Amino acid sequence: MVEELLQTKIKRQFRLHGLSLRKDGTTFLQSLLREFKLGDVEEALSRIIETLCNADLPSPIVDMAALERAVQECKDGDPDCEKVLNVINSFEIPRYHYQAERKKLCLDTAPNTLFGGAPKKIGICKERYSMILQRTQRHSLFTQPVAGALQDTKKFVLHTVEQVLGQQGVKQTICVLAMITQIEEGKFFLEDSSCHMQCDLSKARFHQGLFMEFTFVLAEGIYDEIDNIFKVSGIGLPPPEPAKITRNYFGNANFFGGSSTVAVGAVAKLRELEKERDSMIVIMSDVWLDQPQVMTKLKTMFSGYSKFPPFAFVLFGNFLSAYNPQNTMEKMKTGFKALADLLALFPVLCADTHFLLVPGPQDPGPAPVFPRPSIPATLAGPLSNRLSNLHLCTNPARLQYCSQEIVLFRENLVNKFCRNSIVVPSRDKELHVHLAKTILSQGHLAPLPLHVTPIHWSYDHALRLYPIPDMVVVADRYDAFSVTVSECLVVNPGSFSKNNFNFKVYLPAQRKLENCEISI
Asked: DSSP class of residue 265?
């Protein structure tokens, strides 16, 4: 009975990834996995399958030679799979695109350049649309019930814009997934990969979220053939998909980045290590190194933590309170030297704690375009000489801590979202909830028009949030907040220098966040 269950599990996992095994291959894996525990069997199968998928097989039928190579590679081990901390540069994040024919996320191995051509710009919208469409189509609201089954909730049928325009004489409510845009000034349109149509939003009921141009929405309404306009009665954001559900469809491949072939959440050793370690990560934004009061508060904080060193300090810019093009570089270098001299008083922190620096909007850089490169090493030289574990991060940046995936982003999103929103939510106290749901629903850190938030066309994928990570840190000058949406913790530490020296402390083992303040 146990052998039959194991054989069924092996075949099902391979079919899930579009692969099939010969009889000798199935027998080989059964003999290999027979002594494994249930949880270890699933992890081992995931690693073997992901290794096979990355091997670029000529056929979906796996032969014995390819299977033995994959098993041997897994046995040799991947040292990066068991690293406690991985810091991932935005320019090193892998590009995946969805193939509808294979229903699979496929790695794009074509070489990338910083300044992509026009096809790259067009691809931004197409890739975002395909990613959102495939997960929306399998949501429970849009999957059609089995014949004869009880139907507890209302079901919707997604239509393309082209289908709406082609339904002559149909006066029924239709639901479309499309992007809001202004092709003509003062007129809103809904556009997808098939076509576009003008829409009337005057009587639309807006659901939770922030709606701007360039945002993909679910719009429900009736098409008026006389005025050639789609009259929207309700509009909402596509439902975000928790990472667990995404993994059920696409397996445990590492879509997040880093050299590991398997997602860190699927590595049992890292999950155990995470529970054993009583670590904490301190997060703060707007650390103005040119302000004496800020340096005094930092000294107080470092003194308090020197007895119980945290695993990491994450410091977001801006690192200066004011910017003057004539002396910004010199002031920045002086500020980092002052920080290095301050940390020299606490040798335990210098030796054991990781320091991650993420540049802010006004920090020196080539251009205000995302992703932004890290702070130049020439400016942070004094810190590099003092600290054993200094990480100069890009903006955004990604972290893998044990089994958790964390995204770091410094931008004043709340202000930009509200200024460009078609309808500003009436409840200001819930702005952070609207923001969190919007970025996770869009699967993107900055779903704004490119003239509002410029993005390198070739690296738009570096700002994607799919599959949804465990935590997203959006460092904003807006008031501090934390909210959980689709099993993802979205956090804003607030401005350290402007808001009573507030900061956040994250406890990974408990997956809890603490609000802290230096009041001394």
From this structure: G
